[in-house]
Design brief:
Elements (H helix, E strand, L loop, with lengths): L1 H17 L12 E2 L2 E2 L10 E5 L4 E6 L5 E2 L2 E2 L2 E7 L2 E10 L1 H15 L3 E2 L5 E3 L4 E8 L4 E8 L8
Antiparallel strand pairs: 1-2, 3-4, 4-7, 5-6, 7-8, 8-12, 9-10, 10-11, 11-12
Length: 154
């Protein structure tokens, strides 16, 4: 009997080790306000865009709700690289608003991990959420980063 239990436990352990590691983030975002991560997207005429780099477009969208988790945003912009949403960058005034956003994102996605330079990150398989508060500017910075950006070979 013990041998049978040990065999079953060994099989369960082997199966668990064979599975790919799960990302730390719960409920990882698949899009940001209707713009998908990981799928080609053309920011149409509802966006105002300018070249950010040789391959990047920095865009804003006039119709965007300028709130995150109920907190007013100072700024909201999108960076598209190779026709994919690469980053969403937001700023919020003050520590209180930033703390409210961090609390809500933590409840949705999991606890942020401290990084160097005062940044924290909620790590996902495809998308990371970066959090930083700049005390000198009294500004919180929130960024969604798609980390599986296809890079064309030249």
């Amino acid at each position: 009997m013990r041998r049978a239990i040990a065999s079953v436990l060994a099989l369960i352990l082997a199966a668990a080790l064979a599975l790919p590691a799960q990302a730390a983030m719960r409920d990882e975002p698949k899009d940001f306000r209707g713009i998908p991560f990981g799928k080609r997207f053309n920011p149409g005429n509802t966006f105002a865009c300018e070249m950010d780099s040789e391959e990047g477009l920095r865009c804003t969208r006039a119709g965007d709700d300028k709130h995150l988790c109920g907190v007013p945003l100072k700024s909201l912009s999108y960076l598209f690289m190779y026709h994919y949403l690469f980053t969403v960058d937001m700023e919020v005034d003050g520590q209180e608003g930033f703390d409210t956003i961090v609390k809500e994102l933590t409840a949705r996605h999991g606890k942020p991990t401290p990084q160097s330079g005062g940044t924290s990150m909620i790590t996902g398989r495809n998308v990371d959420i970066m959090l930083y508060y700049d005390a000198a500017r009294h500004t919180g910075e929130i960024g969604y980063v798609f980390k599986n950006l296809p890079c064309p070979v030249e």
